[in-house]
Sequence to fold (654 residues):
Amino acid sequence: MTEQHILMAEQHSILNQTLVERLPFVTTRFTPDYRLISDKATAGKMAACHKPEPSCSPPLHCYETWGLKQPCTGCPMAEVLHTKMPVDFILPATGQCDWPVENGFWQVRMIPVKDWNNQTTILEIACDITGLKEARADLKIFKSRLRDTQQLARIGHWELYHRTGELFWSEEIYRIFEIDPSSFDASYEAFLNAAHPEDRDTINQAYTQSLETGEPYDIEHRLLMKDGRIKHVQERCKTEYDADGNPAKSIGTVQDITENKRIETENKTLQEKILQVQKMESVGRLAGGVAHDFNNMLFVILGNLELVMEGISENDPNYQPLNEIQTAATRSADLTRQLLAFSRQQTIFPRPLNLNTVIGDMIKMLVRLIGEDIELKWIPGKNLGQVMLDPTQVDQILVNLCVNSRDAITDSGQITIETHMVSIGESECLQRPGFKPGEFITLEVSDNGCGMDKAVQARLFEPFFTTKKTNEGTGLGLATTYGIVKQNNGFINVYSEPGNGTTFRIYFRAYKGNGGNDLPLKDTDDAIKGGCETILLVEDEGMILNFCEKTLKTLGYQVLKANSPHQALSVAKRHGSKIDLLLTDVIMAKMNGKELANALLRDFPSLKILYMSGYTANVITHRGILDEGVMFLQKPFSKKALAQKIRDILSDAN
Fold:
């Protein structure tokens, strides 16, 4: 090699070194026998165990810079020499336990290059990626925490890029909407299609107005699930604009507030019931005050009339007018007594008595009262025990309820009177405002008449409220019944639907003969063990559906729930596998419980059926909805009663 060539090589080496030093990487060159030939070693930066001296002679082997006596296991330099191809790897590498890298993580590339003598050398370029690795790890942790937080709060976020129309959804939004990301066309139109059809215009109007004004929006709307369920969500959105004032990106959140809405609805229902009770209490106090004063005046009127009429004969021209006055005053006195009963201020003489005996003595009179076209069925309960009541008040209750049932029946029909002994636990009282824990004896009067809607039921016990024509009723019969029940520390439950009759169920605390023994019963949730079977629960009343679901799950059962017969068929079809028991309400819209059971039995022939209803089993059977002898639970029922009935059915099946 000439002197000129040597000079050019030296200049080229200096230039190459200068360029390399300015690169954002650290580089090293090696001979095929692993010796360092670079002026700038990076091994000292990557391997904390050893830092080679630049003047070391002869140059160290690569592995010696790591404090090793022989090449590393799986050394990538050998692969480069063998394949003549670049090799990329990261230090420390997985499985390379003998590479003592302590100074973070490095992205390394080894490249075969030719020197001036056409000899193969290896150029190693390394970049410290420790910060990048840490940032990625932190980002992964952040994303995980964000995902968990969103799922816990039921809040997802979304971003819409206006230039491209691209829509991004977080995982939680997909979960809220119950949509598979792989089957979702991520666009604003697809989002609108996922919303409830009745709410789409409202959503679009709010979003469009927000874009025009630049003001964020905050709205509630609904989602319609594929199985017909409704979800409620709270959506918030704001838009970012570019320098020209055009919308660039909209960002927002969606929060699932379905549970909040359910609780809000329940609270509203409870509040309405509380207000109704307070209103009844206020009306009762007012009625009682008026009745007392009016009763005093009537006493004067009737007393003086009696004195006057004793002194005149029936032939006296004044006798007939006075007799009509006496009749009107007597009827007014009857109204006054009813008001006093409603306000719980009438004088009573309670004593221990057996309801079966009192009712049995009244049956003949009640038959004459309701007429020949209506059948009266009397079903006394067994081992009933006693209650502490004034027997005349029992008479009043029976007359008022039977007259109400008679008037609800057009032409012919049936009225059923029943008595039962029931136990109510504290957990059941939480689900049913007005209920009390303990042992009770129930008096039930059911009919298959016209029934009542919710509006009528809300005012049922108000004094002077009646659905009858003018001069056909005073509107005090049920108000009197309500007052008597409350005066005796009982409570009353009404179950009715238009066209499906009515059941009045009155609860009187069982008399123990000793005040100290008349204590509320404690729940016996653990008395009867549940099982792991699958139960399909069908109930169109949301509060009862949720209560039954929670109860069944606490007993250990797998629960599939539906709020309508058609949804139940859909749920069963999707489930596919075995369903052990159908627990269904009897009276439901479009399809009753028996029809639903028959439809399910075609696909699940071994399915066991348990019906439940607020009507008595006898009334339902009389309508021909259920056959006699079917398994039946009468609402309201306790957790213990439900657990026992299910276990009996499933045990027989096994």
Notes: The CA atoms of residues 139 and 459 lie 61 Å apart. Residues 39-44, 48-52, 515-527 have pLDDT under 50 and may be disordered.
